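quick one, two chains, predict together pls
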Amino acid sequence: MTQFQASPPPETLCPARPSVKITLVNQGFQRPISVYLALQKRLAAHLRTLLKSKYDLDIENLPIEIPPDLRFGELATPIALQLARSLRKAPKIIATEIVESIGALEGFAGFEVAGAGYINARLDRSTGVKSIAAADLAQHSPKSPLHALVEHTSINPNKAAHIGHLRNAILGDTFVRLLRAAGSKVDIQNYIDNTGVQVADVVVGFLHLEGKSLDEVRQIVAGCEQRAAASGRPADAIDFYCWDLYARTSQWCTSGTGEENAARKQVRLDTLHAIEHGGNETAAVAELISTAVLRRHLETMLRLDIEYDFLPRESEILHLKFWDAAFEQLKQTGVLYFETEGKNKGCWVMTRPGAATEPVQDQDGPKGTDEDAKVIVRSNGTVTYVGKDIAYHLWKFGLLGKDFGYKPFFTYPNHECWISTMHGEAAHPHFGGAQAIYNVIDSRQSDPQANVIQALRGMGHTAEADRYTHFSYEMVALTPRCAIDLGYNVPEEDRSRAYIEVSGRKGFGVKADDLIDKLIAATLDEVNKRQTGRDQAEREKIARQIAIGALRYFMLKYTRNSVIAFDFKDALSFEGETGPYIQYAVVRARNIFRKGDTTADAVLAEFAQLAPDTIAELLARVENQDIWALWLSAARRSLVLEQSLTASEPAYLAKHAFQLAQEFNNFYHRHHILNEENPALKTLLLATAAVALRELIVVLGWLGIESPEAM
RNA sequence: GCGCCCGUAGCUCAGCUGGAUAGAGCGACUGACUACGAAUCAGUAGGCCGGAGGUUCGAAUCCUUCCGGGCGCACCA
């Protein structure tokens, strides 16, 4: 543009941000107080009345965005561009007309036309900064319109948890924290399929491959418990033992000569049926193993600060005959019908979601049969997985008319986790009957999930179907390099692929506890180098906080639809876009107050006494634009929370935390806060650090990441 | 064959109801520790946003189509 641009314009000092849109959609979440949201709403309302009186226009969704750069102001609208056609005027002329008659608006310093016809709004910086400093954004009213139920983790209780399960649990646990931050009451469930083929496989392993009796299995479990307790090594525990046994059994079941293979498959099937039926030695082994492994899963997740309220089990869904109650309802509402023709003859079936939009009212005959229908009850009278899932989800919404028995299972520091049982304790909390449910299940299960939703809708439960969210995410895979490093035999044709799917069946994957141990060891190394003045217990605590922060952030920074190609190099990194980077920003901010012998609260109290004119003058200076930008970022917390919730995307908040940390680190380098000689400026700098610190701690907390005192 | 997801810098990913000059991290190359700790910061290089059409004042974003990759589509659980 200009050829004589000797020095960069002052505007380039402010960090450029992508243009961000503000949505007004509220999907049943409580809207938190936010400086940004309040100003946006005020501006939108003001412009709407202006457009009505000036042009007689009713604009429902008036677009207001956060411009990509501070030199365009703090809020902007492209409304003039949109109106150009209907008003048959150039956008710039419309924008000018609007700005000329816009008048004064509380909180705003002025408006101007820019670019092709944008209307940019500038905030009154001193009042903006004061309200951000004062806003205790965590203080929403605690009552919530929606009682939510989040189901996550749901690992088959037959082997150790792996990194894929970690993504599930961390996503689910973080989403719970976000819902609670927005004021919702949330129950956390972890569904336990203790009667499926996976458990059956391990039971086959114990009984047939290893030839153990129930008593011997009991001894193995007890031995594992003792060894693991003594050594503190997860590798000694029962879930690791089962990991290998499961892989061996899977191999056994799918190998052998034709005759042998058939016999082995039959053994597996018989075992499965014995477990489902219950009341026999095989079922007792299954119960023993699945319960011991489940306990290990809860311990593993507790290392990541992940807890549960209730563990509904498949065995109770079977034995309490949830399906019978659901079957009646499904027949009465016509969702299920008995097929008399075609390949599904003799089955109870339902139409699939994608299929014919209207039930085809064909003439009876071969053409009227829906060959693509989903079988719910087999011709032999047994129910399929989807059928049981429909029953379970009717219970979740309180529509089944039956309930579990409940007994305590696992004690957390602050509460009890309950498990389903046939005949439970008389006094117990009530689960189920939620208004909104979120199922954290990987995207491979979207078809069965859609079937359940379809069934609910067909039964007339449309409100429930609308509040049923399949919180889907892509899998965690291994890079070929990582797989080779772990010692797996990777076929030549797979080595050029971007990633290879993990498989519990093949025993191919990275175990959760192993990864956590590696992370803690690596962080402890770093802490030992830096924290020479602290005792061992303190160092270990810090190392654990950093390791968990690294792991949780690693799993949260990817959006749900992206496949994570796992590599130890990335997961063990503590630099750049990582949890420790954000935690380090917190530690630096804390150190300022420690060295300055003051506190964030004291600083903010002092800041409140500063004259508005003084603040306005300081924030207008060219060299202080980054400070104002940091305040604006800090003010975006509840805005981002809302976007995160409506999109069911925790990654938005993870990115926000990182950006905030990045801006703070930049600010930290540019301004020598404690040495600042101008007292007013020093107060402003300290207040900036205080607000950044407050925001970082809160957002990290929402992500389930602790803020260490030192690192 | 049908359905869903993905394709943006050397690599890994953001870019959220279409909007101003497409952004990070890693890796590479230059610099900055006598300041509140360098797990940090500043800078340089690196992009026909898979291809082609279309809608629009305006497209990485919406539509169509093709190409490439992944995952699902059982009376299994």
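Residues 335-377 of chain A form one domain.
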